[in-house]
Structures are given as structure tokens and as C-alpha cells.
Design brief:
- It catalyses: ATP + H2O = ADP + phosphate + H(+); Couples ATP hydrolysis with the unwinding of duplex DNA by translocating in the 3'-5' direction.
- InterPro entries: AAA+_ATPase, HerA-like, HerA_central, P-loop_NTPase.
- This protein has 2 domains: 212 residues, P-loop containing nucleotide triphosphate hydrolases (Rossmann fold); 64 residues.
- 32% of the residues lie in helices and 19% in strands.
- 48% of the residues are buried.
- The radius of gyration is 22 Å and the shape is elongated.
- Strand 2 and strand 3 form a beta hairpin.
- The longest helix has 21 residues.
- Strands 1-3-2-12-11-10-4-9-8-5-7-6 form a 12-stranded mixed beta sheet, with helices on one face.
- The protein is α/β, with parallel strands linked by helices.
């Protein structure tokens, strides 16, 4: 019998996406395993490199794009999810790729502006940036605000230089991404792969806050699902407050968060404890296993280490909503997977390349 992660065994009660099939002890596949797409969830997908973490994110994105009533958004730091826009097996996967994303400068509060620019709020330059962010809605207006103060010239130069650096990233725009841009039925891929970590974080912060505020204010009807690959990058930067808000308060307005990382040990405790669904591919790092073990539920017999998958695509799913644990094999992607690592052999002409044991 099929089971719906996050809901139970009532497949007909609302939208659900097929995650894969149950995996027996002998490796054979069993009944279909689905994921609830009807209500809000906080999901954490983990796994060491090469075992299918990003692949699983792609499967979830495909199912969301084909579901009704949801608005899936992927913040893509590696540039691997644009393949969702390519031809798909079966039903198409509606996709919109935003290749040059920008957000409003007001997405960041004054404290976050100082953090973004590595300035102490108590320093001369930091206090100027704080004041400018409080009074201004654009970087240009922030620079003008700093120029107009009677602060020491050295402090003004430092503040303006830091603001010029932020402007050089080209990620702040009064007409940046809004909830209306992100709230459609297609999966929106926000490609931040060409940006440095601070700029990525600014985009993620703006996207997360826009989706959350829109649902609180009732300005978008669909339930947003925000998907983040390499999530530790965002938990370590200025995006963290927005992610924490969704994790701790997103259920009421109906905002879901799916985070994926190969370093769960680098994810703050709230990122693990607030996740009601954990999808674990293979992990071997002691620090990563300890991070997950610290939040292991009492209803799980044995340790996660004892149940750890051994092959790519295999997962253990801990579903806190139904207090169940499942061993599964993630289904194949219907669109091409963009996360495979290149191999030297892919670029060698087999007719001319020497083989092992030849000169």
C-alpha cells in the first residue's frame, strides 16, 4: 500500500508527489512512496557528495511544478537546476529560470546591511551604513545619505566604498524580484551560481522574506515552497533570519522550506529540529552524523547510523508528522540531472586515447 510522507496513507486527500519506492532489505523495490504537497512542511535533505542529494531536490521540484496550489522556488547556488526547463519524460515541468536575479535593498534591515558588508555597527563606517539603511530604499540613496552627513571623511569614504562593493554585485534593484514574480504555478529557478556568497545570501534573504510576507498579508494565493541547495551557505550568512522565520513561523501562513546540504553539521540546530521531514542519503562524517543523532526522535528504533543507506539514490526518510521511518529508493528524474560531476574520460576520444597497460 502506498504511503504519503507528511500525511499518512490517505493518498486521495490532497496533492502529493511521488518520491520513489520502498526499499526492502534485499534491495528490491516495493510500493510507491509519496510526499505530501498539500500542507506546509520543513524538509531537510542530506547526503555526502555523489549520493543523490541534489538529484532528490530535482525530483521534489518536478513534483511541485506539476502540482496545483503551490508556488515552488529554487535558489540555485550551483547552477544545476536549469535542466528542469528541458524536455521531460511524461508530463512537462513548467519552469521559469531567473538568470540575473535582484532584490530590493530594503530586503535587508540595517543590522543585516552591516553584516553583509562586514562592518561593525559600532564602527564609524558601520554606524553610517546603519543610518543610511534606516532612511533609504536604494544603494544610491544610501550613498547620498552618507555623503550628506558631517561624519569624518575617513568614515564616509569607508562606508561609501563598502556600499560601492555591494552595488558592484548587481543584485539590488528597486524593481527586484517580488512575491508576484515568484508566486506562479511553475517552478522558478533563481540562479545565483555566478555570485559570491554574500550576494547569494542577499538574494536568498530577499526571496524568503518576500514569500513569507506575501502569505502573511494574503497577497498571493498559492502556498510557496522555497528550495535551497547547499543550505549551509545560507544559514551562515544574512539569509539566516529569513530561513529561521520560515522554519519557526512558516506553518501558519503556509510557507514550506526544503533545505539540502552535504554538511548537516554546519546547519544550525533550528534547521534540524524544526524539520518535520528528514531525507538522508549516505553520510560518513562523524560530525554530520552526530548533528542528526542529536535530533533523533524517540520513536525511531536503533540509530540513524544503523539504517544509513549505502548506494546512491537510497534514502532513509524520518517523517515526524506521522512518527514513522522509511527506507526508500528515490525515483528517476523526468528531466536531465545537472548535478553530475564531469569526468576526464568524457572529453577523451576513445579512438586515440591510450588504455591501461599500453604505452
Amino acid at each position: 500500500m502506498s504511503f504519503v510522507i507528511g500525511r499518512g496513507d490517505e493518498l486521495a486527500e490532497g496533492p502529493a508527489g511521488r518520491l520513489g519506492r520502498y526499499r526492502a532489505l534485499d534491495g528490491s523495490e516495493g510500493a510507491d512512496l509519496f510526499l505530501d504537497l498539500d500542507g506546509p512542511h520543513a524538509m531537510l535533505v542530506v547526503g555526502k557528495r555523489g549520493y543523490g542529494k541534489s538529484f532528490t531536490m530535482g525530483v521534489i521540484a518536478e513534483e511541485l511544478a506539476r502540482s496545483r496550489g503551490v508556488a515552488p522556488v529554487i535558489v540555485d547556488p550551483m547552477g544545476v537546476f536549469d535542466t528542469l526547463a528541458e524536455d521531460a519524460e511524461g508530463n512537462p515541468v513548467p519552469t521559469d529560470v531567473v538568470s540575473s536575479p535582484a532584490v530590493e535593498a530594503t530586503s535587508l534591515d540595517p543590522k543585516s546591511w552591516c553584516a553583509l558588508l562586514d562592518l561593525s555597527p559600532e564602527s564609524g563606517a558601520g554606524s553610517l551604513v546603519w543610518q543610511a539603511a534606516t532612511e533609504s530604499a536604494t544603494i544610491a540613496a544610501m550613498r547620498d545619505h552618507v555623503e550628506a552627513t558631517d561624519a569624518p571623511d575617513a568614515d564616509k569614504r569607508a562606508a561609501i566604498n563598502h556600499l560601492n562593493l555591494a552595488a558592484s554585485w548587481d543584485v539590488f534593484d528597486p524593481d527586484g524580484l517580488s512575491a508576484a514574480d515568484l508566486g506562479g504555478p511553475e517552478v522558478t529557478i533563481v540562479d545565483v551560481s555566478g555570485l559570491e556568497a554574500r550576494a547569494m545570501n542577499a538574494i536568498c534573504r530577499g526571496v524568503g522574506e518576500a514569500l513569507y510576507r506575501a502569505r502573511v498579508r494574503g497577497t498571493i494565493d498559492r502556498l510557496p515552497w522555497l528550495l535551497l541547495d547547499e543550505a549551509h551557505t545560507f544559514f551562515e550568512g544574512v539569509a539566516e533570519p529569513a530561513l529561521r522565520t520560515i522554519l519557526t513561523r512558516g506553518r501558519a501562513p503556509g510557507v514550506s522550506l526544503v533545505t539540502a546540504t552535504q554538511r548537516p553539521g554546519a546547519v544550525p540546530p533550528v534547521g534540524i529540529s524544526q524539520s518535520d521531514v528528514l531525507v538522508s542519503h549516505r553520510l560518513t562524517s562523524e560530525a554530520d552524523l552526530e548533528a542528526l543523532e542529536s535530533a533523533q526522535p524517540t520513536y525511531m528504533n536503533g540509530s540513524l547510523d544503523d539504517r544509513m543507506p549505502t548506494e546512491p539514490g537510497e534514502v532513509v526518510v524520518i517523517d515526524d508528522a506521522t512518527e514513522t521511518v522509511h527506507a526508500a529508493q528515490v525515483r528517476w528524474r523526468d528531466t536531465p540531472h545537472g548535478g553530475d560531476s564531469p569526468r576526464a574520460s568524457d572529453y577523451i576520444d576513445s579512438d586515440t586515447a591510450p588504455t591501461v597497460g599500453t604505452d
